């Protein structure tokens, strides 16, 4: 699967001096992680801290999958509102999901601050705008739901928005506790840290196939084998090529990074901005004064149409950014299209699968992929080290959406 089309911004911010070899040996470990992106890197960090012999392999260079296309907005709020989560899963499960996202935000901040490599983690607030007047009722309901369950949120009217930003919207939710990050630097920082703690990391090492047995898994690569007691598949959207999840679907998403801008003083607190429209637009800034914008998700174009479609969508994104921030020096510097996955019920897929003994999957599908990866790494680290984690059931790969009792 070709995950990315175009020119992503993040690799220009960091040239790794860490060199990871390709596997050319027969080795064994407690846990093999297949996939060196966000989910795999966070899992490797936590597992090595618990003293497990951990191996990470990736068929590409480290961080060159979907993490390279990640736009680095970290939020506890989700594409699916808390109100909708409660309607789908029941109050207990819906609220627990949002609580886990909020906890994951705190864990990400603590983890980022512990790394030798600065991942550009900066706490931010978020503005969730009503795109149309008819969306106001949705935001008002979500505001009351969040407040009722202890989440820090403000309801902004049109006057408050226009006094803080150079645009006007009918209403918005303003939340605290979110952040921005450089996902490429974060992945590298996590795996550098894990390798210093004893993890073995191999890039350009593809999993050819696995043999699953009662005592563990034997993984074959082009030039070596890995015998692992347990395996984590953190292969992102390419997981659908290993096993097809009926609850998941793939689309194309688009993003741009502008050239550095002279003046972003009209951007209140450099807040993360997104909207109720679907497909939506979202925006953030970078430490060097760029605007990163993304969204406009749609069905994946034919392979021979992806490049031209990405070019057109980049211009669409720039026009939408200009509607919010009519700055004189807005110009695209980087533009890319990427495969993006979601689930029909709005929750990621995390945990074991009955057809793959001694294996676990991290499928952080949705707009909050990095936050979901943190949740997954925490849960699976507990499970793999023999500790019960009751949250595992919430993200079951074989779940139904039948609401739990309130």
TrEMBL record:
The UniProt entry, under Gene3D superfamilies, shows: D-Amino Acid Oxidase, subunit A, domain 2, FAD/NAD(P)-binding domain
| This enzyme's EC code(s) | 1.-.-.-
Q: Where does the FAD dependent oxidoreductase domain start and stop, copy by copy?
A: 30-382
SUPFAM superfamilies in the cross-refs: FAD/NAD(P)-binding domain (SSF51905)
Q: Does the keyword ATP-binding apply?
A: no
Instruction: Tell me which UniProt keywords the record has, alphabetically.
Output: Oxidoreductase
The answer to keyword Ligase applying to this record is no
Q: Which InterPro entries match?
A: FAD-dep_OxRdtase, FAD/NAD-bd_sf
Provide the GO MF annotations for this entry: oxidoreductase activity
> What protein is this chain from?
NAD(P)/FAD-dependent oxidoreductase
What is the source species? Paenibacillus illinoisensis
